[in-house]
Amino acid sequence: MFFFFFLYLVALAQGGHTHCVQAFGADQFDEEHKKECKAKSSFFNWWYCLTCGGLLVPLLVLTYIQENLGWVLGFGIPAIVMCFTLIVFLVGTHTYRFRVSKDGRNPFVRISRVFVKAAKYWRAAPVALSVDEEALAILSKESTQFKFLDKALIAPHDVSIEDRKFCSIGDVEDAKSILRLVPIWFTALGYSIVYAQPLTLFTKQATTMDRHFISRFEVPAASLQQYFILVTLIVFIPIYDRVFVPIARAITKKPSGISMVQRIGIGLFLSLVSIVFAAFVERMRFATAIEYGLVDKPNVMIPMCWLAPQYVLARIADVFAMIGLQEFFYEQVSCDLKSIGLAMYLSILGIGSLLSSFLVSLIENVTTRHGHDGWFADNFNRAHLDYFYWLLTGIGVLGLAAYIYFARSYVYRRRSYA
């Protein structure tokens, strides 16, 4: 009970830390300063790169310590490192920039008030405004989406002046920015389902293949995917930040090289390519098992290992899609809601993993009826993992098509309000 209590405490800490620390780091850059605005775009690239690079240490060092010197030391070293990290963080307290709400109102309250008032006065005619007509005209020109929320700026004559002025243009725009994120959130779920596969089914594929690379040295299946994933990210993120972005910046004249929705779209497409390649590899693995008479010998390694391309493609897709989603959900909400925006991004990955598990369970129940081998049979040589990958391809195509549709009409949030 003591052990599991602290495991859950670690999970609770991660839930509060992960999205807040990214928002806090990005808040240290001044959006109005041209040089710092460019640097903030790179921040998300290097954040993800160093996060993945940090995983190499436990993979190469801590796993050895835990297996050979004991778990007490294996857990103790990270605990000491975290204490040192906390000290360094506190030492820098006087240098940090803090974003404070200008009016002191709780952001959840003021945004929820917009939805409540818009619903309450949805039949009201625009005869009594909580802002002057000139301001409403500016709002109408710059924000044509979700105009039903403009009703939050309208109140009947018999309502008090204080109630009329409670919702500002900024409040309405912040509420609209949350709604604009919802279609992008939904369309990214297909990507998140594919994102879950390298850590699960890709590894299962690897367990059936010959992983000897140097003489008799056999790379563990789990380590294989970790090394490919981490090395790809550590190598490609600097290439993206120092080569791709400057070239794109020279062409498009944008500080980030390409827009956030373009970056996410490229990532979704590459993710789709990776799962298509995985389907072809699985089909070839099955054909090789038949050729060598290994269909009913699941414990014999199949003489092929072509998993590197799908691992590499999947992680290059993350450089575009995952980092793009981080920056997008951070930028497209108000200053008060930056951490909530990043929490929305993280929820895409969490829900995607749940959907992946749900699909696997559902398909397993359907395909194993009447005693047949299912798509995920224990003997992988009689399974049909390629069918599942093609199903994910279909989901990915639908998600990408929907994303392109919503991204083309997406209206970026303004940085300031009249």
UniProtKB/TrEMBL annotation:
User: What does the record say about its membrane topology?
Assistant: Multi-pass membrane protein
Primary subcellular site in the record, as a coarse category: membrane
Q: Where are the transmembrane segments?
A: 44-65, 72-92, 178-196, 217-240, 260-281, 342-363, 387-406
Determine if GTP-binding is one of this entry's keywords.
no
Going by the entry's taxonomy, the superkingdom of the source organism is recorded as Eukaryota
Pfam families tied to this protein = PTR2
Q: Where is the signal peptide?
A: 1-15
GO CC, sorted alphabetically, is: membrane
Keywords, A to Z? Answer: Membrane, Signal, Transmembrane, Transmembrane helix
Localization, UniProt: Membrane
Please give the family membership noted in the entry.
Answer: Belongs to the major facilitator superfamily. Phosphate:H(+) symporter (TC 2.A.1.9) family. Belongs to the major facilitator superfamily. Proton-dependent oligopeptide transporter (POT/PTR) (TC 2.A.17) family.
Q: What protein does this entry describe? A: Uncharacterized protein
Source species of the chain: Penstemon smallii
